[in-house]
Design brief:
Blueprint lengths: L3 E4 L2 E5 L2 H11 L11 E9 L6 H15 L6 E3 L2 E5 L4 H11 E3 L6 H7 L7 E5 L4 E6 L6 H16 L17 H4 L9 H12 L23 E7 L2 H13 L4 H17 L9 E10 L23 E10 L4 H14 L8 H13 L13 E7 L7 E3 L5 E12 L7 E7 L2 E9 L5 H18 L14
Parallel strand pairs: 6-7, 12-15
Antiparallel strand pairs: 1-2, 2-5, 3-8, 3-14, 4-5, 7-8, 9-16, 10-11, 13-14, 15-16
Helix pairs in contact: 1-11, 2-5, 7-11, 9-10, 9-12
Length: about 475
């Protein structure tokens, strides 16, 4: 799964299984013309006049970024990842015209994303009236951390352009994660086969499920994807982070535990005679620590490979009393175990999973509705909020940051991160199944369960939690 030049300027590599899984999920025809899990990253950027036209600065930075990260201009053809070296300036301009666009309509970022058709390439859009930059891509190409690597590179490319020459950029193409992390491939050993089956069997449970009741019928066809956000104040965020440390929990563990407790609370009373139930929690793990050097990058500031390098396991969280403490105890153990034991059997398990994902689900089985959580960590560690030029002047300021995802499935997708000292939660959902009001209730209840579960009394100057 490394790149090979099959003819002059034409490079190919097989897709890794870590890429095939989201590609299959994205391709499910849940709504014509749309793509499930189509990802976006949005940033509000302040441009210093010294940069000239923001649109021109973005075009120049985007062009340099293609050189440093050619994958943004690669596409999938017949199940093969393909990159074509541009042989003329006109070829570069054609790609720029298709992928780097100034949006003239007076739309919000959310309104624009609802109308943005999926592209075979990664794209960059600029909303001049709000000074928002929108990067979009199919999920098979990258994940949240990769988005941040790319955006941080883009801002620095605008502030301090570097020389480059198209034709040598294939040296910057990254292999698949499986190659970078030396994940065993078929034929698999009996031990790996057994471990993969054990992992898949662990996804299921015979216990009655804890489920979040949808606003509307789950049998409706998918509609428009929506987004709701809750930003927690600086003082409240500080109190939460301090309390997490006191309880020996990471913020990610605590937020996930609060989400489980929120779903339990919103579901209502436990059915009569039921002692124990299960919430299907997907624990997502960042896998970049397993990667060796992935390219012979000719642009030193290109940094880490901006490819997908994350995966998750499904864990049934046992629900008895619905308490934050009981959920946190289980999730702490899950996150502490990490992904080390699963890495050798990762490809084998994904290979067995693909046929199940490709098989259409019967209409009477509308699928999982449990919210899925993904933590992006401290964004400030990945994206510089102030970017300087060669003379040390601040020429770019990143004022705000958020992510979104096209959701055509029944289960909402939550993203949690910290930005400039504030915890931010956003939930992406499909409006055919959920109302924005209900998604806001989920976010508020998650916050209430988090504060209550951590035993926080003093929230500083901010309002006390509702009861």
């Amino acid at each position: 799964m490394s790149w090979t030049e099959t003819s002059a300027g034409h490079w190919e590599r097989p897709l890794g299984l870590i890429e095939k899984v989201p590609l299959v999920v994205s391709a499910q025809s849940l709504r014509p013309g749309r793509e499930n899990w189509y990802e976006t990253m949005i940033a509000k950027v302040s441009f210093d006049p010294i940069l000239g036209s923001p649109a021109d600065a973005l075009r120049n930075g985007w062009k340099q970024m293609r050189y440093a990260f050619p994958e943004i201009a690669a596409s999938v053809r017949n199940g093969i990842y393909v990159y074509e070296v541009p042989t003329t300036p006109a070829a570069v301009e054609d790609w720029l015209a298709e992928t780097c666009v100034v949006v003239q309509e007076n739309l919000t970022a959310d309104e624009f994303m609802q109308s943005l058709p999926p592209s075979k390439f990664m794209t960059l859009h600029f909303l001049p009236h709000t000074s928002e930059v929108i990067m979009s891509s199919s999920h098979f190409r990258l994940d949240g951390p990769a988005f941040m690597v790319l955006f941080n590179y883009l801002t620095h490319a605008m502030a301090k352009p570097e020389p480059y020459e198209f034709g040598t950029e294939p040296a910057n193409l990254a292999p698949s994660f499986e190659v970078s992390a030396s994940v065993p491939q078929a034929p698999y050993t009996p031990e790996i086969e057994a471990a993969a089956m054990s992992r898949l069997m662990a996804f299921s449970t015979q216990l009655p499920p804890v489920t979040l009741k949808p606003t509307y019928s789950l049998h409706s066809p998918a509609g428009v994807s929506g987004r709701a956000t809750l930003t927690i104040s600086t003082s409240e965020s500080k109190a939460i982070i301090t309390a997490c440390k006191a309880h020996a929990l990471t913020v990610n563990m605590a937020q996930h535990s609060a989400l489980v407790s929120a779903v339990v609370a919103l579901e209502g009373p436990t059915p009569a005679g039921v002692v124990e139930r299960a919430f299907s929690a997907i624990a997502a793990f960042g896998l970049r620590k397993y990667c060796i050097a992935t390219t012979t990058r000719t642009v030193p500031s290109g940094g880490a490979a901006a490819t997908i390098a994350s995966s998750g396991n499904v864990y049934p969280i046992m629900v008895t009393d619905g308490s934050f403490h009981s959920h946190a105890t289980q999730l702490k153990e899950i996150y502490a175990q990490g992904f080390d034991a699963f890495l050798p059997s990762m490809s084998c398990a994904q290979e067995k999973m693909l046929p199940m994902l490709e098989k259409p689900m019967p209409a009477e089985m509308p699928g999982q509705t449990d919210p899925v959580m993904s933590g992006l960590g401290v964004v400030d560690r990945m994206i510089a909020s102030e970017v300087r030029n060669e003379t040390g002047e601040i020429v770019l300021r990143v004022e705000d940051f958020w992510v979104g995802m096209e959701i055509l499935q029944r289960a909402p997708q939550l993203f949690f991160w910290t930005w400039k000292g504030q915890l931010v939660w956003t939930v992406c959902y499909n409006e055919a199944y959920w109302s924005k009001a209900d998604m806001n209730i989920l976010l508020e209840e998650t916050k209430r369960q988090l504060i209550q579960g951590l035993g926080i009394v003093d929230l500083g100057e901010d309002k006390k939690p509702t009861t």
